[in-house]
């Protein structure tokens, strides 16, 4: 046994509250205030951990977030896959297991730690509760928040809200700071917006790369001191302190006073005041000396030093405390682009003084760290035993191999060795690596600095980031007012944007193909019904509404008669199809524009953008009414009979109510707007009603349609039906690179009506190329073969060597019940000229012949739309 | 995350806004009179300076109004915001 608990001392301990916990199946005691690491050291544990890659024995090396060796899984009283043992306060009955640097994700049955988020607005946030932070907070006015990653903040200033166990994981623009708090058994993410940020995050002590520096028992000098002061734990009986600076020397003095036998090894040739003071106190000090090797299996027993006289000496030791200088915490400020400059005297990188006016960097983080003799790596010994990043088992030899391979930048060396990619994120290894690279290249110290650091400063569990936004709250789900009926019917859904749309309604264990065949057959032969409520709907109102829509759509809307409907395209300024839908003129100054389900928000955004930014003289207002109107689409040869039977005041006769018009009246006793539009090619009535009445109207239609075998259908059948008719779906046939002409729909562009968005681009040299891809139909020679969507198309049956010239690709593909075979649509280079010819579809390295056809497969004359 | 001062709603988090690219690029009065190169210049070409420039934002999750901002692309500091019908401040 080497480490032990002293009879007194330990600022963080409550010795009146003893606890027990279990580590790797061993029952251990602790006091309230202990961390797992301090309790392990107090128990005399010296190793206890292994490294993740080489499987080397390791012990606790630090007392904070920079710990590279000692990781545990928490099994009780909550589950967490991995935490540094130095950052886990012991609770009574806790069960932890050592983990070799890598956590194992829990199964679904393990509940994550509860988590929530808060949003705070303060005048000042102080990051770090050390002397500099406390003094910064005490001098601040207004609401002041102080956060510190340690569980105890000594002497918090009055009038300051102090959050212990809270890490600022990132500092962002305009005083935005994200903090991660471990509050008992819950996690809290604080989103802090502050007028002033005081960065007082201190400095990290740096290790030195010497042979055998990963042996259990080698730790940072500041850690040995922290275990003494915070937990009353003297980590060893014979402690060698290898120190380049007075803070390391001071730690040595404190350890000696506490009762350890201490020997100091100082690489500096100067005999400084700190060394003299220690000598005067009776501590053995070797100046101009270096540690060149360690011994012990697995834990430290000897330290070999090379003294000023060049003689090697073996010193018995159970702990080797190392202090290679101090790195100010620069990671948080680097995140907002603040640069670094090298300080020769302190042998470290400090902030370059630039930065926003709201940020103050003070204390150790601001460069107030001890002067240090510049020693990064000890020349003697095997480079392959000098560990730089213990958590990756990476050594000076690995850095030398990267540099030998031609890498000179610390960023490149990081990526070649993975040094700095662990939870350490370069805190202890970054400067060390950069200086070893500088030295290997023969460059001066500080010639280049450490690789960049990005948030988060310490790991944050995903469960904390998610907060309460899990399960149903993880993502918005939109459902229509008819959704309860779909649920009761066992619909299978498709996500369209955030909408849940029924994809098909399986009956008696049907698969999708069987259900879609039945649903499409019902619509073509009798009657089907679709919940079309999700279609985007925007009311465009004002005296200039018609003029405005003329500029937004490719065709003219201003001359649309009240009561009529027109289908239109909207283009991007680049001339490419952006969205489609119908516009209905409700009144002289009032249109209702429908959009695709997924495009509704983008279309409204676009309307508002042009009205506010460009045509601010137009008097037009746009309002989303998507959820104010539910839509029941009744389609098929018997649609008129069903709607009549459901009861309507609207005259449904063709002459009284022609195609592409709408009528207002009642359906099933409730107010309704009935539209004669069709996305299937068959007679169709879209019944728009208040969402409050939607289920009633749906039920009435189902009841009235029962004698006709009315069949609800989903989006998959809708896709098949519209594809048979050659109708496009924006986003399925298009990918943002198709003009109306590419889709064979040049007729929808009215070039005589004046300017509209995208018009000029339709005559750009690129859009008038004659080899553009055009939308065509495809029929497979094998009528049963349904081509996968995305299948590439070739001119020849033989696949040429790469790069093969592809004619295009399949955009949609289905089995058509009406045609008794598969149909597909494709974008094909010069496709319209290829109609009637055979091209070839590539299928897993083979080809299959397909015939290029017109994109309309079914009822090309349009005879079915009037029933 | 930036803090942006909406001219109507005051300072709000960046997540309430959507970006709209470079400001003060008016839609051409007569696009058909432009040569292909001139139209392409309007359509595709934007400045990318280091330092102050004018850009558009919309308070998408707030009042849904568009406005202009002068921002320093090097420091991310928003120097001014102003309404669409206001002159660019000097």
Q: Could you list some keywords that capture this structure?
A:
heterodimer, A: 867 residues, alpha+beta, seven-stranded mixed beta sheet, six-stranded mixed beta sheet, B: 90 residues, mainly beta, four-stranded antiparallel beta sheet, two-stranded antiparallel sheet, 1 helix
Q: If you had to describe this structure to a student in words, what would you say it looks like?
A:
The complex is a heterodimer of chains A (867) and B (90). In chain A, 51% of the residues are buried. In chain A, helix 7 packs across helix 8 (410-417). Chain A has 867 residues and is an alpha+beta fold. Chain B has 90 residues and is mainly β. Chain B is 10% helix and 37% strand. In chain B, the strands form 2 sheets. Chain B has a 4-stranded antiparallel sheet with strand order 3-4-5-6, with no helix packed on it. The interface between A and B is medium-sized, with 24 and 28 residues.
Topology:
The complex is a heterodimer of chains A (867) and B (90).
Chain A: E1 4-5, E2 14-23, E3 26-32, H1 36-42, E4 49-50, E5 57-58, E6 71-76, E7 80-84, E8 95-99, E9 115-127, H2 131-138, E10 144-147, E11 161-163, E12 166-172, E13 176-183, E14 186-199, E15 203-205, E16 218-220, H3 221-231, E17 233-234, E18 238-243, H4 246-257, E19 261-266, H5 273-280, E20 284-287, E21 290-295, E22 302-306, E23 312-316, E24 319-323, E25 326-328, H6 331-334, E26 340-343, E27 348-351, E28 359-361, E29 387-389, E30 394-395, H7 396-404, H8 410-417, H9 430-440, H10 462-466, H11 483-489, E31 492-496, E32 499-504, H12 512-525, E33 528-531, E34 536-541, H13 545-552, E35 565-571, E36 577-587, E37 590-595, H14 600-613, E38 621-624, E39 630-635, H15 639-646, E40 662-667, E41 670-675, E42 684-689, H16 691-705, E43 711-712, H17 715-725, E44 773-780, E45 792-794, E46 808-816, E47 821-829, E48 838-843, E49 846-853
Parallel strand pairs in A: 2-8, 9-10, 9-14, 10-11, 14-28, 16-24, 18-19, 18-24, 19-20, 33-43
Antiparallel strand pairs in A: 1-17, 2-3, 4-5, 6-7, 6-8, 12-13, 13-14, 15-25, 21-22, 22-23, 26-27, 29-30, 31-32, 33-39, 34-37, 34-38, 35-36, 36-37, 39-42, 40-41, 41-42, 44-47, 44-49, 45-46, 45-48, 46-47, 48-49
Helix pairs in contact in A: 3-4, 4-5, 7-8, 7-9, 12-17, 15-16
Chain B: E1 3-6, E2 10-13, E3 18-22, H1 36-44, E4 52-58, E5 66-72, E6 78-83
């Amino acid at each position: 046994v080497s480490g032990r608990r002293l009879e007194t001392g330990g600022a963080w301990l409550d010795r009146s509250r003893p606890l027990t916990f279990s580590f790797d199946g061993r029952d251990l005691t602790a006091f309230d205030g202990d961390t797992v690491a301090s309790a392990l050291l107090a128990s005399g544990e010296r190793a206890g951990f292994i490294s993740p890659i080489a499987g080397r024995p390791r012990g606790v090396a630090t007392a904070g977030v920079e710990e590279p060796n000692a990781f545990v899984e928490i099994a009780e009283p909550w589950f967490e896959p991995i935490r540094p043992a130095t950052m886990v306060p012991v609770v009574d009955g806790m069960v932890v297991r050592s983990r070799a640097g890598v956590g194992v994700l829990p199964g679904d049955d393990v509940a994550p730690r509860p988590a929530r988020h808060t949003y705070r607005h303060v005048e000042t946030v102080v990051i770090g509760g050390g002397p500099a932070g406390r003094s910064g907070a005490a001098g601040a006015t207004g609401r002041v928040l102080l956060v510190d990653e340690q569980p105890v903040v000594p002497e918090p200033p009055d009038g300051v809200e102090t959050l212990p166990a809270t890490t600022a994981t990132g500092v962002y623009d305009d005083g935005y700071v994200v903090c991660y708090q471990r509050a008992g058994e819950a996690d809290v993410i604080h989103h802090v917006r502050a007028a002033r940020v005081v960065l007082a995050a201190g400095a990290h002590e740096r290790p030195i790369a010497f042979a055998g520096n990963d042996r259990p028992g080698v730790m940072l000098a500041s850690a040995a001191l922290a275990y003494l002061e915070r937990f009353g734990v003297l980590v060893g009986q014979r402690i060698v302190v290898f120190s380049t600076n007075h803070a390391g020397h001071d730690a040595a003095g404190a350890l000696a006073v506490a009762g350890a036998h201490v020997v100091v090894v100082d690489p500096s040739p100067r005999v400084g005041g700190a060394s003299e003071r220690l000598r005067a106190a009776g501590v053995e000090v070797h100046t101009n000396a270096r540690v060149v090797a360690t011994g012990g299996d697995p834990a430290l027993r000897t330290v070999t030093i090379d003294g000023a006289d060049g003689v090697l000496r073996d010193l018995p030791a159970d702990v080797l405390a190392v202090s290679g200088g101090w790195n100010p915490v620069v990671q948080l400020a680097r995140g907002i682009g603040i640069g670094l400059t090298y300080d020769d005297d302190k042998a470290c990188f400090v902030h370059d003084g630039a930065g926003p006016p709201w940020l103050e960097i003070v204390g150790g983080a601001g460069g107030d760290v001890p002067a240090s003799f510049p020693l990064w790596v000890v020349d003697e010994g095997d480079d392959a035993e000098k560990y730089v990043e213990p958590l990756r088992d990476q050594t000076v030899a690995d850095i030398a191999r990267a540099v030998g391979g031609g890498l000179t930048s610390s960023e490149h060396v990081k990526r070649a060795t993975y040094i700095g990619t662990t939870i350490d994120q370069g805190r202890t290894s970054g400067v060390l690596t950069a200086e070893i690279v500088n030295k290997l290249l023969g460059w001066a110290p500080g010639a280049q600095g450490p690789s960049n650091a990005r948030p988060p400063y310490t790991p944050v569990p995903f469960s904390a980031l998610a907060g309460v936004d899990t399960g149903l709250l993880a993502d918005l789900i939109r459902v229509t007012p008819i959704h309860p009926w779909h649920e009761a019917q066992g619909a299978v859904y498709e996500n369209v944007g955030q909408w849940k749309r029924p994809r098909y309604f399986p009956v008696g264990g049907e698969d999708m193909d069987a259900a879609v065949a039945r649903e499409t057959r019902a619509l073509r032969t009798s009657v089907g019904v679709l919940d079309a409520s999700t279609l985007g709907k925007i009311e465009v109102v004002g005296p200039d509404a018609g003029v405005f829509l003329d500029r937004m759509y490719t065709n003219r809307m201003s001359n649309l008669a009240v009561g009529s409907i027109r289908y239109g395209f909207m283009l991007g300024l680049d001339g490419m199809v952006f969205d489609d839908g119908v516009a209905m003129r409700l009144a002289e100054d009032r249109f209702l524009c429908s959009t695709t389900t997924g495009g509704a928000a983008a279309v409204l955004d676009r309307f508002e953008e042009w009205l506010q930014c460009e045509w601010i003289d137009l008097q037009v207002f746009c309002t989303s009414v998507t959820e104010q109107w539910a839509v029941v689409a009744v389609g098929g040869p018997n649609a008129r009979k069903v709607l009549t039977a459901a009861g309507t005041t609207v005259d449904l006769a063709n002459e009284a109510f022609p195609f592409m018009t709408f009528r207002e009246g009642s359906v099933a006793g409730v107010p309704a707007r009935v539209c004669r539009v069709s996305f299937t090619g068959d007679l169709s009535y879209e019944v728009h009603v208040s969402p409050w009445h939607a289920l009633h109207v749906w039920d009435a239609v189902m009841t009235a349609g029962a004698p006709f075998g009315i069949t609800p259908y989903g989006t998959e059948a809708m896709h098949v039906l519209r594809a048979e008719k050659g109708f496009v779906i924006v986003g399925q046939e298009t990918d943002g690179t198709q003009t109306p002409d590419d889709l064979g729909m040049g007729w929808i562009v009215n070039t005589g009506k004046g300017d509209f968005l995208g018009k000029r681009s339709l005559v750009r040299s690129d859009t008038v190329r004659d080899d553009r891809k055009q939308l065509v139909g495809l029929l497979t020679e094998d009528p049963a073969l349904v081509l996968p969507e995305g299948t590439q198309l070739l001119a020849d049956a033989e696949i040429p060597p790469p790069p093969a010239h592809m004619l295009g690709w399949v955009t949609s593909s289905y089995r058509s019940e009406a045609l008794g075979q598969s149909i597909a649509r494709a974008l094909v280079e010069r496709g319209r000229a290829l109609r009637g010819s055979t091209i070839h579809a590539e299928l897993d390295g083979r080809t299959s012949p397909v015939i290029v056809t017109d994109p309309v497969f079914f009822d090309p004359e349009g005879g079915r739309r009037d029933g | 995350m930036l803090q942006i001062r909406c001219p109507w709603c005051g300072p709000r988090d960046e997540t309430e806004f959507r970006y709209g690219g470079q400001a003060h690029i008016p839609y051409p009065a007569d696009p058909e009179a432009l040569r292909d190169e001139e139209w392409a210049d309007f359509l595709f070409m934007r400045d990318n300076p280091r330092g102050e420039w004018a850009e558009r934002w919309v308070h998408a999750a707030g009042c849904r109004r568009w406005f202009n901002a002068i921002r320093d692309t090097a420091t991310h500091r928003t120097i001014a915001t102003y309404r669409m019908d206001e002159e660019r401040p000097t």
